[in-house]
Amino acid sequence: PEASALCGKTVIVTAGPTREKIDDVRFLSNYSSGKMGFAIAAEAARRGAKVRLVTGPVNLPTPPGVERIDVESAAGMLAAARPLFDDCDLFIGAAAVADYRPEAPVAGKIKKKDAEMEIRLVRNPDILAGFANGRKPGQVAVGFALETAGGIDYARRKLVDKRLDLVAFNIYDGRTSGFEVDTNALTLLGRDGNVTELPLLSKEKAAAKLLDAVESILPR
Length: 220
Ligand code: PMT
Prior knowledge:
This is Coenzyme A biosynthesis bifunctional protein CoaBC. It is built from five helices and twelve strands.
């Protein structure tokens, strides 16, 4: 068979959730398990890519041949990923990065009081958009967009606003697709206007289909 276009390429994959500290014992986060990003990292490595997997806290084994970097917060993910940007052919953002973090995490444990409490949140940096905006010609940027039903227009917005080559739109339905479960239904939106609706697949098969599409846009 013909060698994969990914063979010998350097790939960054982000995966999992981030945790944004409220105090030393509490955080804001989401339901990402890391399964989708880990499946992509595993498949890219199988195709001969040099894979760097930057992941938030998850309970998954490191795929064979993959270099894994564990992080906690969005700021930590950016700090780990940014030094790798220059030497990479492809960035795939499968992480569910928190858009906001508590402005001022409290040292120790916040004490319960007999009153309401407010936590002020500030914006986190966008790791994928940072890569896409600063990249050199030939570097490819792929994102995910998790939306509830009817969200394809939001996914298209992300493709344009973050200046991506490809977006994988997944519908979060709480049962078969999106966070935590072993299956996902992806719709791939290309910068060229191409739309490919994939059926519900295992995250391993969905990762393979996504990488097939990526191979077709990777410079040889
Ligand atoms: O981990 P699993 O349980 O297997 O679930 C997989 C998944 C649903 C988490 C995954 O398939 C997915 O959709 N990941 C993106 C989740 C999301 O909500 O992304 P977003 O719409 O907030 O962000 C869009 C893109 O920008 C993503 O590629 C994201 O990684 C990236 N991003 C977002 C915010 C930020 N601060 N930095 C980023 O890099």
